[in-house]
């Protein structure tokens, strides 16, 4: 898909340098791995956990200190019958969820351009006030498959867009649909297992045939980035014209924009504004089609994205060859670079020693931008990264600061555009979450949450039994109205 195509990723990059002064979101001033930030993060997690637990237990919601707006009171106790319940379905016999992903839709993009359709869903639905938090690495395939399975990448197996199996040496690429790579139970399989139709229009992993999911041609077209966006929406709308019991209860729909523009131009370019206008028109087309069929209020629409985007201009490079006075890294040790460095040294070479020597070189002051990269044994990564529990993850992982790019060798050509894959808790890596439907309170603002929660949210709305996953059991009830 788009992020992997070198022509999309790098074409024409130099001409369009993002202007940092019009940066959309405040850029964190210190390293994302600083103890202060980790501490703040931990406090946030504790607050979130306490808040969810308390709301479940006591029937009201506590707020994280950063949330300035007042939320609805939810979780009515049985005695309080005046709390709002979900709106009953008017026309459809059962709930239907349409999940729409806009690749690389950085949180806040909808504020860059008039977006009446997205705003309408926000006003009459629920929005994650500070965006949707991706999983690490903040890349397209790991994140789309985390949203589909509720699993962190080590447990669903898609630990990068491209990676090698450590035992066979075989490489996974985004075109590989062999089920051996794709672990876990994605939403479309959960739906199919329980006897309903599901439809996927280009979601990562959806073409993989697994158990009851056979990727039926009429509900699972093969990926083709040239299919116009309008055609995708119209195909999805067409599913609602099927006999009632054939209408898919789950529809997952993917668009490559605005990631394509983000890579070429960076997040602050007028081309992004144009792409956002187009995204909004696509949302409008979907909403209109549902309205024409009289089912807009029955259908749950969830808009989200897989990750954000950070500008990469000003020659923000780290070249591994500059480490040669400390350690000669073989080119074949490097499993991935750019925004996520992963290293698998050949057998016989001590991983600890590689980490020690690389970090010594990086902190020496003699490697360009060396202070922007830190390498870890994967087990020593901060726990919030959840990036250790799979043999597919190489033993050494380098985390580079926002906007920086790791290359093996110095290249003559400088690129200037946008990238992602960085620390998933950076604001710039967040995407958005907007949901509209019978079980979402009007005008509700919820705190940011991580996208592994999406799986339980969707299975709860659909009244299906979900597979074990890394989402929290309490999350759906903390944001949904009680079933009517
Ligand atoms: C919001 O929802 C209400 C009640 O369903 C409806 O009357 C109103 O038209 C909706 N507003 C928008 C902007 O869609
Ligand atoms: C992809 O879609 C385009 C536009 O509809 C079409 O012309 C092309 O033949 C398709 N490619 C494949 C491989 O199906
Ligand atoms: C994530 O879920 C998988 C499957 O249930 C489980 O094996 C794994 O331990 C979980 N990991 C975390 C960090 O919760």
Descriptive report:
With 484 residues, the chain is an alpha/beta fold. Helices cover 26% and strands 14% of the residues. The chain has 12 helices and 19 strands. It has helices spanning 6-10, 35-58, 116-123, 140-149, 153-156, 187-193, 229-239, 259-265, 270-292, 351-362, 454-461, 475-479; strands at residues 96-102, 126-128, 132-133, 163-164, 171-172, 198-201, 250-255, 299-304, 310-311, 317-319, 334-336, 340-343, 373-377, 396-400, 405-407, 418-419, 433-436, 444-446, 449-450. It has a 7-stranded mixed β-sheet, with helices on both faces. A hairpin with a 6-residue loop joins β4 (163-164) and β5 (171-172). The longest helix is centred in the N-terminal third of the chain and has 24 residues, at 35-58. The model is unreliable at 1-81 (pLDDT under 50). The structure holds 2-acetamido-2-deoxy-beta-D-glucopyranose (3 copies). The site of one 2-acetamido-2-deoxy-beta-D-glucopyranose (NAG) has 3 residues, from α3.
Task: Give a topology summary.
Blueprint: H1 6-10, H2 35-58, E1 96-102, H3 116-123, E2 126-128, E3 132-133, H4 140-149, H5 153-156, E4 163-164, E5 171-172, H6 187-193, E6 198-201, H7 229-239, E7 250-255, H8 259-265, H9 270-292, E8 299-304, E9 310-311, E10 317-319, E11 334-336, E12 340-343, H10 351-362, E13 373-377, E14 396-400, E15 405-407, E16 418-419, E17 433-436, E18 444-446, E19 449-450, H11 454-461, H12 475-479
Parallel strand pairs: 1-7, 1-8, 2-18, 3-19, 6-7, 10-15
Antiparallel strand pairs: 2-17, 4-5, 8-17, 9-16, 11-12, 12-14, 13-14
Helix pairs in contact: 7-9
Keywords: Membrane, Transmembrane, Transmembrane helix
Protein name: Ectonucleotide pyrophosphatase/phosphodiesterase family member 3
Transmembrane segments: 38-63
């Amino acid at each position: 898909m788009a992020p992997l195509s070198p022509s999309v990723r790098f074409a024409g990059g130099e001409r369009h340098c993002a202007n940092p002064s019009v940066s959309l979101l405040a850029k964190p001033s210190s390293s994302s791995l600083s103890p202060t930030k980790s501490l703040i993060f931990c406090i946030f997690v504790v607050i979130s956990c306490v808040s969810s637990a308390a709301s479940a237990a006591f029937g009201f919601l506590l707020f994280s200190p950063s949330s300035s707006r007042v939320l609805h009171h939810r979780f009515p106790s049985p005695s309080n019958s005046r709390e709002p319940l979900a709106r009953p379905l008017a026309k459809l016999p059962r709930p239907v969820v349409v999940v729409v992903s806009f690749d690389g839709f950085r949180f806040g993009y909808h504020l860059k351009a008039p977006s009446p359709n997205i705003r309408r869903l926000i006003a009459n639905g629920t929005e994650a006030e500070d965006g949707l938090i991706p999983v690490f690495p903040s890349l397209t395939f790991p994140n789309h498959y985390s949203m589909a399975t509720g699993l962190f990448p080590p447990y669903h197996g898609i630990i990068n867009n491209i990676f090698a199996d450590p035992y066979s040496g075989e490489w996974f690429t985004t075109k590989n649909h062999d089920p051996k790579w794709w672990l876990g139970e994605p939403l479309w399989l959960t739906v199919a297992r329980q006897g309903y139709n599901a439809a996927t229009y280009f979601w990562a992993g959806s073409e993989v045939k697994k158990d009851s999911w056979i990727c039926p041609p009429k509900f699972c077209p093969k990926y083709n980035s040239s299919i116009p966006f309008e055609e995708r929406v119209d195909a999805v709308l067409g599913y609602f014209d099927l006999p009632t019991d054939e209408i898919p209860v789950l529809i997952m729909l993917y668009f490559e924009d605005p990631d394509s523009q983000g890579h070429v131009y960076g997040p602050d370019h007028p081309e992004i504004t144009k792409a956002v206008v187009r995204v909004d028109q696509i949302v409008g087309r979907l909403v209109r089609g549902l309205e024409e069929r009289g089912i807009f209020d029955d259908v749950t629409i969830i808009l989200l994205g897989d990750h954000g985007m950070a500008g990469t201009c000003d020659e923000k490079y780290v070249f591994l060859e500059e480490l040669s006075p400390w350690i000669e890294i073989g080119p074949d040790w490097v499993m991935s670079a750019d925004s996520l460095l992963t290293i698998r040294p050949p057998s016989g070479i001590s991983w600890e020693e590689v980490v020690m020597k690389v970090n010594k070189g990086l902190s020496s002051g003699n490697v360009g931008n060396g202070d922007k990269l830190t390498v870890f044994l994967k087990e020593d990564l901060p726990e919030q990264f959840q990036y250790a529990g799979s043999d597919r993850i190489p033993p050494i992982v380098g985390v580079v600061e926002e906007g920086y790019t790791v290359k093996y060798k110095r290249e003559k050509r400088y690129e200037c555009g946008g990238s992602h894959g960085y620390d998933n808790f950076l604001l710039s890596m967040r995407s958005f979450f907007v949901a509209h439907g019978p079980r979402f309170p009007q005008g509700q603002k919820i705190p940011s949450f991580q996208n592994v929660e999406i799986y339980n949210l969707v299975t709860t709305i659909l009244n299906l039994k979900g597979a074990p996953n890394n989402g929290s059991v309490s999350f759906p009830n903390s944001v949904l109205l009680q079933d009517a």
